Amino acid sequence: TVSFRSSSDHVNFQNIPNRHPIYSPIIRKLFVPRPGNHLVELDFSGAEVRVAGCVTKDPKLMAYLTGAGDMHHDVAKDIFLLRDDQVDKKTTRHWAKNRFVFAQFYGSVYFQCAPALWDEVTSSGGQKAFLPGTQITVRQHLASKGIKELGSCDPKSPAKKGTFAQLVMEAERSMWEDRFTVFTKWKKDLWQRYQRDGYIDMATGFTCGLRDMRRNQVLNFPIQGPAFHCTLWCVSEINRALRRYRMKSRVLGQIHDSVLGDVPGKELQNYLDIAYETMTEKIMKAWKWLIVPLEAEADVAPLGLSWADKKGYVKKGTIWQAA
User: How many whole angstroms separate alpha carbon 167 and alpha carbon 118?
Assistant: First the structure.
């Protein structure tokens, strides 16, 4: 693709729902392994954000990614006017992560993020989202701070003070002007270079020289392309290892930042070791520009069952087992 990311069709793995409560189980149950095998999926955790840290070299982002603080927790405090002890991992932190932080990294802006966040706060689930240890909902908490409505999200008219939209706008300003200043400068410098030169280079050696690229594309492609190349490199290396050891396991495909395999039961432990080591250690040694550790999570479907039945797996000692 023009962004140097992956593309898929016949069937399109990348458009198969993953978390939809109705469609995901229906469709994923159609995918089953060969007799006596497991379907095994290893997924990079936050690949594009980690690659962004490597590419931009923003010290605050790199610190977050190496365990110095929790970016999503801190942003949730800004958006919902919370103290540390009031942030809930399953609600406010989760909303901030998926509806704001990742969206901002992909080029979204506050007037797009605010309605999605407000929907979480006011939804049926949001009505049961209490601050930890209380019976106060997030919406009631915001109301106690004077935030009672979403407010206008029209980009042509600034958000009014005292609205949720204005609160999200301020969180956006804080994120880019106070927290990730080096990342912000990187974006400004990259856009200026593209306007001058007409092309952008990627950490993995590719050059994207499309004419009339939008600013969003210029800023996203150098992160999205190399993030996919990490997955592609790992697919190639895992396949080489499977051939080297004459294993019967097979890589079925790549879905965004994950690798899906069809693995005989007796090869499960070895396959997980090979794939995990490739995705978290070998690639770091092969590509020196990766200066933030990559992490991967494993899911395994029980023997003979479908893709819809996969469960999280972790390594305890030397053995992989259900989390």
Answer: 11
Do 259 and 296 contact (CB within 8 A), yes or no? no
19: helix, coil or strand?
Answer: coil
Cβ neighbours of residue 102 closer than 8 Å, sequence gap 6 or more:
49
Question: Given this model, what pLDDT does residue 212 score?
Answer: 84
The two three-digit tokens of residue 26, written as one number: 């229906």
Could you report the per-residue pLDDT of 105-134, keeping only the tens digit for each?
A: 888 999 999 999 999 999 988 888 999 999
Tally the C-alpha atoms within 13 A of residue 274's C-alpha that lie toward its C-beta. Answer: 25
Task: Determine whether 168 is exposed, middle or buried from the number of CB atoms within 10 Å of its CB (0-12, 13-18, 19+).
Answer: buried
Instruction: Please give the pLDDT value at position 126.
Output: 87
User: Quick check: helix, strand or coil at residue 66?
Assistant: coil
What value, to the nearest 5°, has the Cα angle with vertex 35 and ends 31 and 41? Answer: 45
Single out the residue of 313, 323, 305, 319 nearest to residue 35, CA to CA: 305
User: Do 167 and 79 meet the contact criterion of CB atoms below 8 Å apart?
Assistant: yes
Region of 215 (left: φ > 0; alpha: ψ -120 to 50; beta: rest) is alpha
Side chain identity at residue 245, one-letter code: Y
Residues 51 and 62: beta-carbon distance below 8 Å: no
Tokens at 42, concatenated: 């290893």
User: Which pLDDT score is estimated for 309?
Assistant: 95
Tokens of 5: 């990311």
Mapping DSSP to helix (H, G, I), strand (E, B) and coil, where does residue 264 land?
Answer: strand
What global pTM score does this model have? Answer: 0.88
Based on the number of CB atoms within 10 Å of its own CB, is 298 exposed (0-12), middle (13-18) or buried (19 or more)?
buried
Indicate the DSSP class of residue 86.
G
Sign of CA dihedral 230, 3, 210, 213: negative
pLDDT by residue (tens digit) across 56-99?
999 999 999 998 899 999 999 999 999 999 999 999 999 999 99
**What is the percent of the chain with per-residue pLDDT over 70, rounded to a whole number?**
100
Nearest to 85 by CA among 45, 129, 134, 51: 134
More confident residue, 243 or 256: 243
Q: What is the pLDDT at residue 317? A: 94
